[in-house]
Amino acid sequence: MRCQCPLQYKGPQCQQTKHSFHGNGYAWFPPMRPCFESHLSLEFITEVVDGLLLYSGPVAQLQPWDPEDFVAIELINGTPTLKVNHGSGTLVLQLPGNVDAADRRWHRLDVRSNGKEVRFTLDRCATGTVLETEGVSNWLMTEDHSSCEVSGVTPNQDRHLNMTQVLQVGGVNENLPYIYPQLLHKHFSGCIRNLVVDSKVYDLGSPADSQGSSPGCARTDGNCVSLGYPSCGPRGRCLGEWGSFSCQCLPGFSGQQCEREVPSYSFDGRSHVHLRLGFPIPARRTQVQVLVRTRKASGAIFSLTAVEQSEYLRLERSEILLSAQEWRRSEAPPPTLRTCGHHPSS
Ligand SMILES: [Ca+2]
Q1: CATH 2.60.120.200 assigned to 18-216
Q2: Which of 76, 101, 170, 261 is the most buried (most CB within 10 A)?
């Protein structure tokens, strides 16, 4: 089953996946129920260097028997910072100081924890340097994650994030008799989207309580409509950016607003076209798209080869199957759905 959602609802079950914050507010959502081995991710866009993206933890003065568990993600002088407490002390993970995530672009944060071990990653480490020793097997490939990832171990014995309190996004409610001593910043200005905790997509459209915030992200999505007409025309999907937009074109079209038809070629079984790419292919992610119409059961559709011919990507039609062959540096496996296992109590 797949849902066809109204335009502004992008979640798998037509959830509203974006929420805007105006620098003085907050939005409340149901408590997180993190697995023992858990994964939280979100994306944000802002131009303000300080702010609180998310907080889940105490909202009242702790009694001696209350757990001190909390998790918070702050932006401190443009640098994403994670604070996490499993009940016996706080671990602070701050990305390197030269990261400026308040640059009016979307950024993604991932928090992965497995018991006491916690890893905090910016933009899936797409900026990390890949160091690969050519011509030998994959295990000699290393990636330098020092610019985009930081990890650590929560102090002392407690191993699990126990969450019973409401999840506060984009700020905290300060109309409570509690001062949030864990936090340096208490509000966020910008948009947050795609908040996912252990495969659960949060519906950011209808918070239980909120102030100074609104569903959607007018700052970016407003640019996808100009004079009542979709900015990318009928042949493209618009990606809203801060003060601008970009277009993802339907197959067969290109150009800034998908206005150009891409050229097509006919082949007689003995001919080919040889193209030289005028740009290096990125180390991590390559997207190739081709439209094919043929009556032949087999044939080579395209072959992408490195200059020294040591690496290639080839797409073939063989009988009724399409097959892709690749000899290249390995990539991370696709994300999989997980359900929770055992929950330790501490
Ligand atoms: Ca705990």
Answers
A1: yes
A2: 170
